[in-house]
Design goal:
The strands form 2 sheets. This protein has a 7-stranded parallel sheet with strand order 3-2-1-4-5-6-7, sandwiched between helices. It has a 6-stranded parallel sheet with strand order 10-9-8-11-12-13, with helices on both faces. It is of the alpha/beta class. The protein has 14 helices and 13 strands.
């Protein structure tokens, strides 16, 4: 099968969506699929991957994205593909898979970070003059209004967005839940990783180490997490430590930690290419996000057997049975609920029980299952195309 895969960026360092796309296309090639990648990135050479680089310099990032969409639409028409699968917005596709969810929901949830009042009003008004948002919303309206036959949603949360913002008919939506590669690390290596990371950051083995892994600190609720840590300290719980891992680190976050009195128990590590190693060192993953279509880091943590705390605004929350695999808080703004959830999971026996319960989730959140379901959809489309 010959597949055109359209993804403006595919550099894993950019985030979870790009990492997932990279893993996905490698799984496709392993199954014998001929993949033609249309991208602005320059991935490492892979023998069976055919990369179509879409260049073109313009004055702004928004203009570059517009140019990318137009050039891809022209280029894919110059060849014949069994399936055109777009991850970046493109109206020439057979399938559109918005791994980042909808722009409309992203705008709404970014506004939710701002306390209600004048600040939110000013931000909402300023959005009217944001060309990138206006273009992206116009593209979404065209795609979800019938411009692309099939929309693939990576979670129920994304389906809700499609229905609520654009009234996309259920018949046009296929749910193929997000997936990650399994953690098959040898137990001895896991223990070594735990010892190395804890020694590096001066964390005792009997401390409950809570990890928060993110790049967009504001959207992923880092401030709310530090407020929760302050409450945990106030209630006399002294065995909780936290590593905040990601490129969002800056002086303002250190100042906030000092102001809240948690600088002694919250450490900002900066970005890391040892995420799996960090997960092996941790006891709990906290992800108090304002918006995540289906958080990859939560699925990775569950795959490692790590209890997770996330919010109802994360599509990954739908695989977490509260109390069995972790806990789901209603909103990142409920700092009390977040603090109580962490205190609950600070108990070693509770964590051990949850870790064991995470093992049956492996199949449900596996990337190979995600690829199986996508290939089935490709086959259905290929049969329809042949019939025409």
């Amino acid at each position: 099968m010959k597949v055109a895969l359209i993804s403006e960026w595919i550099d894993p360092w950019r985030g979870g969506a790009e990492t997932s796309t990279t893993q996905f296309l490698h799984h496709l090639m392993d199954r014998g699929t001929e993949v033609h990648l249309f991208t602005r990135s320059r991935p490492s050479p892979t023998p069976t991957l055919k990369v179509h680089y879409i260049g073109g310099a313009t004055m702004s990032r928004t203009r570059r994205s517009v140019t990318f969409a137009h050039r891809v639409a022209r280029l894919v028409r110059q060849d014949r593909y069994d399936v055109i699968h777009a991850i970046s917005p493109c109206t020439c596709a057979d399938i559109y898979q918005p791994r980042g969810g909808t722009v409309a929901e992203s705008i709404e949830r970014n506004l939710a970070i701002i306390p209600s009042g004048p600040g939110r009003f000013i931000k909402r008004y300023g959005n009217r003059f944001n060309f990138k948002q206006r273009y992206s919303l116009a593209m979404e309206r065209e795609i979800f209004g019938g411009g692309v036959p099939i929309i693939v949603a990576i979670s129920d949360y994304v389906i809700d967005q499609l229905r609520r913002h654009y009234d996309v008919p259920l018949g046009a939506i296929r749910k193929i839940y997000n997936g990650v590669n399994p953690d098959d690390t040898d137990p001895a290596d896991r223990r070594r990783h735990r010892e190395e990371v804890r020694r590096e950051y001066h964390i005792a083995d009997d401390h409950c180490l809570v990890l928060l892994i993110a790049h967009n600190f504001r959207l992923k609720g880092v401030a709310r997490w530090m407020e929760a840590m302050a409450l945990i300290k106030q209630h006399g719980v002294t065995n909780v430590r936290s590593l905040v891992i990601g490129k969002g680190d800056s002086l303002r976050w250190h100042r906030l930690a000092a102001r809240l009195g948690v600088a002694d128990c919250v450490t900002f590590t900066g970005p890391s290419d040892r995420i799996q190693t960090m997960l092996h060192a941790g006891d709990v993953l906290v992800h108090p996000t304002y918006y995540d279509p289906c958080s990859r880091v939560v699925l990775e943590a569950l795959s490692c057997g790590l209890p997770c705390i996330t919010t109802s605004y994360d599509g990954a929350s739908e695989v977490i049975e509260p109390g069995k695999h972790g806990l789901v808080v209603s909103t990142p703004d409920d700092v009390d609920e977040l603090a109580r959830a962490v205190v609950t999971l600070a108990d070693p026996q509770t964590r051990a029980r949850i870790s064991a319960a995470c093992k049956p989730l492996q199949r449900r959140i596996a990337m190979h299952r995600h690829v199986d379901e996508m290939l089935s959809l490709y086959h259905d489309l290929g049969v329809q195309t042949t019939a025409v």
